[in-house]
Amino acid sequence: MATWGYDDNNGPDKWGDSFPIGKDGVRQSPVEITTSKVEAKPEFTELKFKYVPDNTKDIENTGSSWKVNINGTGSSLSGGPLKDNHELWQYHAHWGSDNSKGSEHRVDGKMYAAELHLVHWNTKYSSPEEAADKEDGLAVLGMFIEVGAKHEEFQKIVDALDKIKYKGQQTVLASAVDPTKFLPKAKDFWTYEGSLTTPPLYESVTWIVFREPIQFSEEQINGMRNIAFCCKDEKHIAMVNNFRPPVALGSRVVQGNK
Which residue stretches belong to region Disordered (predicted)? Predict the structure, then answer.
């Protein structure tokens, strides 16, 4: 059995047994965002993005999500709550078995059908691996996904999912994907200090969650539901509900750019 996953035997409520920070930590993620308690920080500067589409070529099934790996440099994030420049490392998503659930963060109790995460590492460190467990090592952009219009850029990923149906499979995307096109039109955001939402659950993430959701079509979200948690020679288990429920915010405060 895998050391962690999303079923009854190795799901999020069991992760703390193997990864104690999951139950003993003080800045775990995701969290419930209560909009009435958000602290406005108008002094935050605008977020600055520079993504290089040609760096997004490889996609794999990790056994917990699909993941696009970034090859090369130059895809950067700065501004907002961030003091340093951050480089894009990888991106992936979390989704539910139906459209009523799937996002990891929640807003005033509301869940979305899915959530996209763009994971960046702080370039004051020498590598993403070195940055991964540092308290200021990572910055993740979170986009809520609701069912709506077909997303043309995301379709490039959907078209590759049949080739990575099973855990461990990897392929090259037929055409480069521009992460800029996943950003919502309005760039208002919430931010807080948190963690990775999957083991090893390092408390190293500055979360930046956009208020405005983006849209994928029902067919596109179903495309994600059609890949599997398992390897090809194992009993088929559809990859759905690969999200961690919210954890206590504790003494932390969620801030917003306005």
Answer: 1-26
Q: How far apart are CA 9 and CA 64, in angstroms?
A: 15
pLDDT in tens, 93-131: 999 999 999 999 999 999 999 999 999 999 999 999 999
From the number of C-beta atoms within 10 Å of its C-beta (0-12, 13-18, 19+), residue 200 rates as middle
Q: Is residue 37 part of a domain?
A: no
What single letter denotes the amino acid at residue 67? K
C-alpha to C-alpha distance for 141 and 208, rounded to whole angstroms:
5
For residue 51, give the nearest of 179, 238, 140, 156 by alpha carbon. Answer: 179
CB within 8 Å of 215: residues ≥ 6 apart: 145, 146, 147, 148, 149, 151
Give the residues across from 239 on adjacent strands. Answer: none
CA-based radius of gyration for the chain: 17
- The C-alpha angle 185, 62, 105, rounded to 5 degrees, equals 40
Residue 41 counted as domain residue: no
| Residues forming a β-bridge with 190 | 209, 256
Q: Nearest CA to 112 among 198, 210, 238?
A: 210
Q: Which is it for the CA torsion 37, 41, 42, 47, positive or negative?
A: negative
Residue-range definition of the domain harbouring residue 84: 12-32+46-256
The total of structural domains in the chain comes to 1
Q: Where are the alpha helices (DSSP H) in the chain?
A: 15-18, 21-24, 128-131, 152-158, 218-225
Q: The domain that contains 235 carries what CATH number?
A: 3.10.200.10
